[in-house]
Design brief:
Elements: H1 37-42, E1 46-48, H2 61-72, E2 79-82, H3 94-108, E3 114-118, H4 123-135, E4 140-143, H5 155-168, E5 173-176, H6 188-198, E6 211-214
Parallel strand pairs: 1-2, 2-3, 3-4, 4-5
Antiparallel strand pairs: 5-6
Helix pairs in contact: 2-3, 4-5, 5-6
Length: 223
């Protein structure tokens, strides 16, 4: 559910006062939008951008732009994720998601890599979002599991979903991992199979964080 933004109140500052990190990926106006997958993976701090909405539930573009500038100004930040939970992606239409990416690209895209969420219950729609994100200059995709997976999934289902997305774009794929008990998490063998078959020319490695990145960067999880 969208929450309307009160223009009299400052946009929430999600990460000020946090730890500083030495690894930064800063880009000049002349550099391309895309960041090498290995460089993106080495980054230590990514933040999610929170979208603001007007009382009629349309995007508050001025408020969103201000929030993006505030977040991007935090020292040590390595990238910003949009069209995910904090930008109310589940409530946004395809065109609104594209507009969120366009705004972020225009406001901070020359300074930080943008990771675009892929939130869709169907693989064809997920592939369409992936293409849109690539065309809009995103540096990577954060792929959420389809909601029907809550009722049950198989390795073949997960592979088919990621394969269709991987075939639509060559952007790195970050797997959003839920606990296995929810039905939306992926077992280790499923993750490794997806990494190897969706990006067969790229090596994978296992780390100790809840986020998995495929495309020769890592498949991270405490597994």
């Amino acid at each position: 559910m969208r929450a309307a933004h009160d223009p009299k109140k400052p946009a929430p500052d999600l990460i000020r006062g946090g730890n500083r990190f030495s690894d930064k990926i800063m880009r000049s106006q002349k550099e391309t939008h895309h960041v090498p997958a290995r460089e993106l993976c080495s980054a230590r701090c990514h933040s999610g951008g929170a979208a603001a909405f007007e009382n009629d539930l349309s995007i508050d573009e001025a408020g969103f732009r201000k929030h993006l500038r505030d977040v991007a100004a935090v020292e040590g930040l390595s990238g910003i994720t949009i069209n995910a939970h904090s930008t109310e992606v589940a409530s946004c239409t395809f065109d609104e998601q594209r507009r969120v990416l366009d705004i972020a690209q225009d406001e901070i895209g020359a300074r930080l890599p943008l990771i675009n969420g892929v939130w869709a219950d169907g693989s064809q729609e997920a592939a369409r979002i992936a293409k849109m994100a690539a065309q809009g200059g995103a540096s990577a995709l954060l792929v959420f599991p389809p909601a029907p997976f809550t009722l049950g999934q198989s390795p073949a289902m997960a592979l088919a979903h990621f394969k269709r997305i991987a075939d639509a774009t060559d952007l790195p794929l970050i797997v959003f991992q839920y606990p296995l008990a929810t039905g939306q998490g992926y077992p280790k063998d499923t993750l490794l199979s997806c990494a190897r078959r969706c990006r067969p020319s790229a090596p994978s490695r296992i780390g100790s964080v809840m986020c998995r990145i495929m495309n020769g960067t890592s498949a991270r999880s405490k597994i």
